[in-house]
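User: Hey, quick favor. My workstation is busy. Could you predict this chain's structure for me?
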Amino acid sequence: MNSAGISPFRNREDAALRLAQRLRTRALRDPLVLAIPRGGVVIAAVLARELGAELDVVLSRKLRAPFQPEYALGAVGEDGTLFLSPHLEEIPGATDEYIAEEQHYQLAEIDRRKALIRAVRPPARVPGRSVIVTDDGIATGATMIAALQTAREQRPHELIVAVPVASPDRLPEIRRHCDEVVCLRSPADFRAVGQFYDDFSAVEDDEVVQLLREANTR
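Assistant: No problem, here it is.
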């Protein structure tokens, strides 16, 4: 909850509908919404439906810090793009060997998810389009930056980050990697993304596949 004791969003669908309201008046060129799985797919499915956009995913995974797996020392994109924290030297145990091993592990998880997703949804065309990259929130920003680097390589017309909530400390860095950020909340008391949802239930692979299948059918 925020400092007033009230969670801004009931669930991911509620957050996505509010986000869509902010984006509805924008002039978008052949819009494409790219989700960072898994929670981001719920957000993206609503955005795509409300904005009349195509839905797809961009896969990136957090690189877990040694001894503190909830903390990101960086992230890796599906194309192997690596983003590392500028404060890497302050993270105990973050040796080159550890980073290489963690990168290998997360790329294997990306490959597993890619196999599930591409069975129902071939990759969308990116060049020349308005691309909206979304997730259910931004904490360290590592996975979002890796995703943006992957998307930028495919030459979109514009690259927009749209999220319900983000750490205010990370937004300046995020803005360096995209053309615009649309964020509903960036409160000073940010501690974790789930803090701002009444329902922040885990999203499973089956739900991700079903949302993509439904969007592809539409």
